[in-house]
Write a structure and sequence with these properties.
With 237 residues, the chain is of the alpha+beta class. It contains 8 helices and 5 strands. The radius of gyration is 22 Å and the shape is elongated.
Length: 237
């Protein structure tokens, strides 16, 4: 992973230093706004990378947001960010090349909050991100928000999962990635027990299908199921 998040944090710290000194000399406004633009730009580019894609190679905040939307990725403070996008974009150039640059303190305060929210979200992904692979059919059902329960063994790797963590699913056919939040985790002894407690569509079947717990034997042996037990991981795109 690149150093984009670390760079975003440095720019945010620099912006705060500038902000605290505006009352001493309003020349600090230029640096404050430039650093805030950079912090948000780097953080959004980091989110694109976390979703397994290359970020758009320009300074346009909206370009990174549109890229994230195309990936069905969550964007913190999306409404507020789109509202201020034109202002933030202008800061990348105006703060450096316009001797008469001005900015409203109200805008700076709002955009500081946006930068903090995006960076905090990036931090939460770093601390709680788990990688899993999925076949194409299951991946697309989750992407389309039809399948909301991922079924796994409760093995050593899955015991690390917690409510509020994130899973980055990778499509084994296309390589596409999708980040989902864990909403809840249900533990069962067997898939037979699990199937009794969850709607068939939510676990990946069609409405016309007749779900059979033995279908899971294509992925896990009886021995492993009895040894570890199983999980129904409720997720949200």
């Amino acid at each position: 992973m690149s150093k984009l998040l670390a760079r975003a944090k440095v720019k945010r710290v620099n912006a705060e230093y500038d902000y605290q000194n505006i009352s001493i000399d309003d020349a600090y406004i230029d640096d404050c706004c430039y650093n805030l633009e950079q912090a948000i730009e780097f953080a959004l580019k980091y989110l694109v990378e976390m979703n397994g894609e290359n970020y758009v190679e320009n300074h346009d905040i909206r370009a990174q947001m549109n890229k994230l939307k195309s990936l069905n990725a969550y964007i913190p403070c999306e409404k507020e960010l789109r509202l201020h996008a034109s202002t933030i974009n202008s800061w990348e150039v105006e703060t450096r090349y316009n001797d008469n640059f001005v900015a409203l303190i109200e805008d700076i305060n709002d955009i500081k909050d946006i930068a903090d929210a995006i960076i905090d979200y990036c931090d939460s992904l770093v601390k709680t991100l788990h990688d899993m692979k999925l076949y194409d059919d299951a991946f697309n059902l989750i992407k389309n928000k039809t399948k909301t329960i991922e079924m796994r063994l409760n093995d050593k790797k899955r015991k690390l999962l917690k409510k509020g963590d994130f899973i980055r699913f990778t499509n084994t056919l296309t390589g596409e990635k999708l980040i989902c939040e864990i909403i809840d985790i249900y533990k069962y002894k067997t898939f037979t027990e699990l199937y009794k407690h969850h709607d068939k569509v939510s676990i990946g079947y069609k409405k016309s299908d007749n779900p059979n717990p033995d279908d899971m034997l294509a992925y896990y042996s009886y021995e492993d199921i009895n040894k570890y037990g199983v999980l129904a991981i409720k997720i949200k795109v």
